[in-house]
Amino acid sequence: MFICGNRKCRKSQSIFTNSWFEKDKIQVNEILEIYYYWLLKMPSTSIAITIGKDPSTIGYHLSNIRNLIGSHIQEHKQKIGGKDII
To answer: What share of the chain is helix, strand, coil (3-state, %, to 5)?
Structure first.
């Protein structure tokens, strides 16, 4: 939570406002846990069982992270490797 330091103002705003976490119904730590297990190449069904969430929820979040990574790769095309690196 951000709170304005000006004593006359003191407005507050969630740090998740205008982010893709804003409208989520699950906790941010659970979303990060989904991404962590995905990075470990855990199957989505196993992630759902481990976290205790519906498989459709897991699928939704895995789709989001794949789309985000795909968009980033398309916008930032660069050669991987270098001289004498395959």
So the answer is: 50, 5, 45
